[in-house]
Design brief:
The complex is a heterodimer.
Chain A: E1 14-25, E2 28-40, E3 45-49, H1 56-63, E4 71-76, E5 79-80, E6 88-91, H2 103-107, H3 109-113, H4 118-131, H5 147-159, E7 165-169, H6 177-193, E8 197-201, H7 205-211, E9 214-218, E10 225-230, H8 245-260
Parallel strand pairs in A: 3-8, 3-9, 6-7, 7-8
Antiparallel strand pairs in A: 1-2, 1-4, 4-5, 9-10
Chain B: H1 2-24, H2 34-43, H3 45-79, H4 81-95, H5 103-110, H6 114-138, H7 142-150, H8 155-192, H9 198-207, H10 211-239, H11 244-258
Helix pairs in contact in B: 2-10, 3-4, 3-6, 3-8, 3-9, 5-6, 6-8, 7-8, 8-9, 8-10, 9-10
The chains are: A alpha/beta, B mainly alpha.
The structure holds adenosine-5'-triphosphate and magnesium ion.
Chain lengths: ~280, ~260
C-alpha cells in the first residue's frame, strides 16, 4: 500500500508531471484536474490560489498519495508516489480531530500510529500547543474548542513529527485576521528554522504572497495552472512587507489574473481581495 | 426529577388497580390486587430471588455472548466483502425467523439445562448488536481514515483508533435493545423446558391458577429488565462521555444547576 519513497531531510522535491484527475460519480465523470505540471524544489514554499472547486484540495490529496491519479505521474525525490510517503504532514481543509481524545492526545496521534515512545514527544507536543496559543487547552476535548482553535490543534498534529513535506489545505481559513497574521509569521519561522517543502492552499491573495516562494494560480474548474508567480521578497518577511509597493504590485497582478479568467467578476467566489 | 415523576405515575397506577379490584370484587385468580402480589413476594423472598438470579444468569450469559459475537461478526462484515456477502446475508434471513420457534430445537440439541436457554437468549439478542455495530463501524469520517493513511497506519490501527471508538455509541444503542431481547430470550427458553427461572415460575403457576405468582414474577421481570437497561446506559456514560447526546444532557443539567 505505502511506497518506500524516503524524503531527503532537507525537504522533498516534488515533480508533478501531466497529472490529471477525473472522479467517477453517478452523474458522470467530473474532471477535477486538467493536465498539471509543476516542479517543486526541495525546501520550497509553494502557495496555491484558486477559486472554489477548481481542484486545489484534489491536487493536494494526489500529492498526499490519497488519490489514484487518472493520468500523469508524481515523483517525490526520485520515487513515484504510490501511497502516502514517509515524512508527510497533512493539514486537512476540515480539522479532523477525534472527540474521544483530548487535545494533547489528538496532537500525539502520529506518535502512537508510528509506534514511537510517547515520552520522547510529549514535550514537543506541548511546546507546539504553546506556540499556537493552546497551552491552556491541552486537557480539553475538541468539542470544547472554537473552530479556529480546532484548526490550530490539527496544525500542531501535522507539525509534530517534523515532516519534510507539509501539505496544508486552507489551514488558517477559520481564523480571525490578527491570529492569522501571527500564525503566518509563525509558519514562516518554523519553515525557515527547519527545512521542509510546503504546499500551502489558501483563498487569501496577500497570505499566498506573504508566505510563498512562488504563488501558483489555478483557473476555475477543471483545474489547470493559469500562472506561476515567483515572489522575490527577501526573507524573513515581516508583516510590514505587505505595505510595500512591490507587494502591492504582486497582489494587483494576481487580482488581474483572476479578473481575466472571469473569476473576480462573479462575487460568488471566495477569493479575498483585501488584506 | 424524572424518577419522582415515574414513581408518582406507578403509585397512581397501583392505587387505581387496587381500588378497582376491591370495588368490583374481581376474583384473585383472575386479577389479584397489588397488595396481594406484594404479600406474595414478601412471603417467600428467598425463593423468588433464586429464580430471578437464575433468569438473570441466563440473560447475562446470552447477552455477553451476543455482544462478543455480534461485534466480532460486525468487524468481519466491514473488513471483508466475502464475509459480508455470506454471513450478513445469512444473519438477515435468520433474523426473519421468529427465534422463539427455534427454542424446542435447542432443547433437543442441548438438553433442558442452562445451555439451551442461553442459546435462545443469545440468538434473539445478537442481531441488534450486529446491525448497530456494522452501522457504527461503517460511519467513520472518511477524512479521519485518510488521516490515518497519511500517517501510514495499519488496517488494525485504522480499526482500533478510528472505526471502533466511532462505533461505540452505536454499539451501546444496540446493547440497550439487545439486553431487553436477551431477557425475552431467557424467559422463552424457560417457558419451553426448565426447572428454574421466572419463566418456569410463570408457566408452572399458570397451570395451577396461581395468578398472584404470575404477577409477582412479571413484576420481578420488569424490575430486572429496567435495571439491566440502566446498567448499559451507565456503562455508556462512563465509556463514551464524548458522545453528543451525553454532552447535551450534561450541559442542560449544569445550566439547570446554575440558573
Ligand atoms: N470525491 C469526489 N467525487 C466526485 N467529485 C469530486 C470529489 N471530490 C472533489 N470533487 C470535484 O472535484 C472538483 C474539485 O474539488 P476540490 O475539492 O479539489 O476543490 P477546491 O479547489 O479544493 O475547492 P475549495 O476551495 O472550495 O475547497 C469539484 O468540482 C468537486 O465537485
Ligand atoms: Mg478545497
Amino acid at each position: 500500500m505505502s511506497s518506500q519513497s524516503g524524503v531527503p531531510p532537507g525537504g522533498a522535491a516534488v515533480l508533478i508531471d501531466a497529472v490529471e484527475k477525473t472522479y467517477a460519480s453517478r452523474r458522470g465523470n467530473v474532471t477535477a484536474l486538467c493536465p498539471i505540471d509543476l516542479a517543486i524544489e526541495p525546501g520550497e514554499f509553494v502557495s496555491v490560489l484558486g477559486p472554489s472547486g477548481c481542484g486545489k484540495s484534489t491536487l493536494l490529496r494526489c500529492l498526499a498519495g490519497l488519490e489514484h491519479i487518472s493520468a500523469g505521474s508524481i515523483q517525490l525525490g526520485d520515487q513515484p508516489i504510490d501511497g502516502p510517503p514517509e515524512g508527510l504532514g497533512v493539514v486537512f481543509q476540515r480539522d479532523v480531530l477525534f472527540d474521544w481524545r483530548n487535545v494533547l492526545d489528538n496532537v500525539l496521534l502520529p506518535v502512537e500510529v508510528r509506534r514511537l515512545p510517547r515520552a520522547d514527544w510529549e514535550a514537543r507536543a506541548r511546546s507546539l500547543l504553546d506556540l499556537l496559543g493552546l497551552a491552556a487547552f491541552a486537557d480539553r476535548h475538541p468539542w470544547e474548542l472554537s473552530g479556529g482553535m480546532r484548526q490550530r490543534v490539527s496544525i500542531c498534529r501535522a507539525l509534530l513529527l517534523e515532516p519534510t513535506l507539509l501539505l496544508m489545505d486552507e489551514p488558517f481559513g477559520a481564523l480571525d485576521a490578527m491570529t492569522r497574521d501571527e500564525l503566518n509569521l509563525e509558519l514562516q519561522r518554523i519553515w525557515l528554522a527547519n527545512a521542509k517543502t510546503i504546499f500551502f492552499v489558501t483563498h487569501s491573495i496577500p497570505e499566498a504572497v506573504f508566505l510563498g516562494d512562488r504563488v501558483v494560480v489555478m483557473s476555475p474548474a477543471p483545474g489547470r495552472i493559469a500562472e506561476i508567480i515567483p515572489i522575490a521578497l527577501p526573507r524573513p518577511r515581516d508583516l510590514d512587507v505587505r505595505e510595500t509597493a512591490e507587494f502591492g504590485a504582486i497582489v494587483r497582478h494576481i487580482r488581474q489574473v483572476f479578473k481575466d479568467m472571469g473569476v473576480m467578476a462573479s462575487a460568488r467566489e471566495r477569493i479575498t481581495v483585501g488584506a | 426529577m424524572r424518577t419522582l415523576r415515574v414513581t408518582i405515575i406507578l403509585a397512581a397506577l397501583f392505587i387505581g388497580w387496587e381500588a378497582l379490584v376491591r370495588l368490583l370484587g374481581v376474583p384473585a385468580h383472575m386479577l389479584p390486587p397489588p397488595s396481594a402480589v406484594l404479600a406474595e413476594l414478601l412471603d417467600q423472598p428467598q425463593w423468588y430471588l433464586m429464580h430471578t438470579m437464575s433468569t438473570l444468569l441466563t440473560t447475562l450469559i446470552g447477552f455477553g455472548l451476543a455482544l462478543l459475537v455480534g461485534v466480532l461478526a460486525a468487524i468481519g462484515i466491514i473488513s471483508s466483502k466475502w464475509v459480508e456477502n455470506t454471513l450478513y446475508t445469512l444473519l438477515v434471513s435468520l433474523n426473519s425467523i421468529p427465534k422463539i420457534a427455534l427454542a424446542p430445537l435447542f432443547i433437543i440439541w442441548l438438553g433442558t439445562g442452562l445451555e439451551s436457554k442461553v442459546a435462545v437468549s443469545f440468538l434473539i439478542a445478537v442481531f441488534a448488536i450486529v446491525i448497530d455495530a456494522v452501522l457504527g463501524l461503517r460511519s467513520a469520517d472518511p477524512d479521519a481514515l485518510d488521516l490515518l493513511r497519511t500517517l501510514r497506519g495499519s488496517r488494525f490501527q485504522i480499526l482500533f483508533k478510528v472505526r471502533f471508538p466511532n462505533a461505540l455509541p452505536h454499539i451501546f444503542s444496540g446493547m440497550k435493545v439487545a439486553v431487553s431481547l436477551a431477557l425475552v430470550g431467557a424467559i422463552a427458553g424457560e417457558f419451553v423446558a426448565s426447572q428454574e427461572g421466572l419463566g418456569y415460575v410463570i408457566v408452572n403457576a399458570q397451570s395451577m391458577f396461581q395468578t398472584v405468582r404470575v404477577f409477582a414474577s412479571i413484576v420481578l421481570l420488569g424490575v430486572t429488565g429496567t435495571i439491566l437497561f440502566y446498567l448499559v446506559d451507565l456503562a455508556e456514560r462512563l465509556i463514551c462521555p464524548w458522545h453528543v447526546s451525553h454532552r447535551v444532557e450534561e450541559a442542560r443539567a449544569l445550566s439547570a444547576q446554575h440558573g
